[in-house]
Amino acid sequence: MELLRVDTIEAAREKLVNAMQEKKPNIVRLDLLKSLGHILAQDVIAQEPVPSFRRSTVDGYAVVSGNTAGASESLPVLLEMVEEVSMGHPSCCPVKTGTCGYVPTGGMIPEGADAMVMEEYCEIFDENHLAVYCPVAHGKDVVSQGEDIREGELVIKKGTRIRPQEIGVMASLGIMDVMVYEPWTITIFSTGDELVHPSHQPAPGEIRDINSYALSAQAETYGLKIQEVMVCKDDQETLKGKVSQLMKISDLVIISGGSSKGKKDATSQIIDEVTDGHTLIHGLALKPGKPSIFGYDQSTATLVTGLPGHPVAAMLVFDLLIIWLYKYMTSQKEGHSLFARMTTNLAGSPGRTTCQLVRLIKKEQEYYAEPVHGKSGLITSLTRADGYLMIGQNQEGLNKDELVEVFYV
Fold this sequence. Notes:
By secondary structure, this protein is an alpha+beta fold. About 20% of the residues lie in helices and about 30% in strands. Strands 8-5-7-6-10-9 form a six-stranded mixed sheet, with no helix packed on it. A six-stranded mixed sheet has the order 17-14-18-22-21-19, sandwiched between helices. Strands 23-26-25-27-29 form a five-stranded mixed barrel.
């Protein structure tokens, strides 16, 4: 195929989804604590209310709010003490007009009471009576049954990445095991005769390997499971053999470098051969990232991808297609974004979607997007950027002060 036969991002995504239908991530059951960081595979519906009883948010006295009307330091209201509620135990004496009961923070509020008066505004008058010096409104410092979570409520949506917060919510509902998506496994190859390990001092003409480290970290950030990471020389047969071997145990195989039309760039041929001719995408209408290749092998159910060697282009394509695909297959939300105004005019690339890195600047209550210029081989461009915006392939560019959507990186 010719590299000029490129796909738009939208067309490429559609091809990947269609090819990977049989490769949807498996669903597994995990212990609640072991589910941290995984993607929830089913909605969490509350089978009971939280809290399951009315609770006090302060140390104080449960009262009928109407009884405290007009209370002041000079003219307190006297109420009869009928109960002292203990933590972890139910209330046993209802509160009626003219009575009250002591309740600690988190304790169960007696039936009949509709408000709490903090200890600071009360004083023991005698053995059986309490003086209240402050009026309280209905519902003051009371958490109602089900106020946090209602029975039958959709509490956590399918596709949510489980954080400590979600662990806490599920624990409050008594959920001790969780259905989650089993992460896809990924193998990453970084190729090039010029590459040396980052710990080595490069000789003239050599460079330290960036992509295997950057892409591995990017994959782990989004929950993919690293199967293998390798740096290979530009030897077609050796690389093909290693790719074929690792396709048997990987859901995704990434080859970074060797996807353009250089003399030694054999990634296209390797992908075509290891997928038995099922190359899906051979080039993207995208800047940067045009020389990207995707193939799907049905026998091993593996997606094999050739990414550009330039780190910025490789990481952006990985985010726009591989991470997007994984999120789509696991019902996750798309990445976070916000709207900002351009600080300057910015030209597009006719016939290609332009992915432009930007830095966000906040002025008063509004954000502004400042382009971060740098060639795709310069990795520091990403460290100086907060996100990126997309200029459509049919757009000439963007104007200063134009409102644009910025996606976080």
